[in-house]
Write the structure tokens for this entry.
Amino acid sequence: MLRLPPFELFAPKTAREAARILADHGPAAMPVAGGTDLYPNMKRRQVEPRVLVSLRGLSGVSGIQANGGLTLGAMATLTEVAEHPAVSARWPAIARSAGLVSSPPLRNAGTIGGNLCVDTRCNYYNQTEFWRASIGYCMKKDGDVCLVAPGSSICWALSSSDTAPVMMSLEAEVTLASPDGERRIPVAALYGADGIRYLVKKPEEVLTEIHVPDRAGWVMTYRKLRRRGSIDFPILGVAAAAKLGGGNVVEDVRLVLGAVHMHPVEAKEACDFLRGKVLDRESIEMAAGIAYKPAKPLDNADLVYSWRKRMARIEVSRALRELAGLPTGDLPVAAPS
């Protein structure tokens, strides 16, 4: 049985107090929300904090408010977000992405803020300490070489959040609390280009709220690819949101791919191509051919990376067909090798 290492637990009442504790203890401390990812990582000795700062008791960071825009407290559970009537009706891609994370028991504990900040994943990293020791460790923990890309100077562990691509596609923002106050940044600015330093927020900052603009008149979706229909992390996520005018003309569109890089990837060229065009089968297939190019899957997740690359094109096409109200089941799919 894998056991948690010893640690000291703090239970602050405010976000600024939590940030102050994190700042005082430096690299030895980590925040914990639902703990559904952190505690297993600690058991496998992927992370070994000596101090945990619980965010469960923080005031004012658990509610859901849908007044024009949407404000999600970072400690709202994934189940609460997925089942909230206003979220489901007005921001259905958020509800869908939250409802596709892991399994019901873990969604009951896991939080929306925690999923936005969830650790990156890799076949060589998400293993027991004994397994990792047997191969000499990797760059992300205890080693100095990325075993996926040995010549790389950075870690290629993959972004594993389901909700991050959706929040980026809707141009959401987050509030971060520090010992000195608060700041608000786009969700897209939360992520870095390194599987180790995958969050660019300061280590002591605490994510307290997510702010999503009113998207009345937009259509949106999220598609998740994984081996099983539950539990598994994404090996591909596609978030798509569009504002369509008369005749399905694309007035604006956002496409974001997840689990294909160290951070969610915006398919900007495909979006530029689609604006002003009718969203039909022809334009969708051309846009999908553009959108899958930024996907850079490597041999660091489930199933074969070349197949995952091909599926990026197919899933983008399916997502755009959903937005256009077209059938999605007639696209050929090669079996994973």
Summary: The chain is about 30% helix and 20% strand. The longest strand covers residues 236-244. Residues 62 and 76 are 5 Å apart (CA to CA). The mean pLDDT is 96.
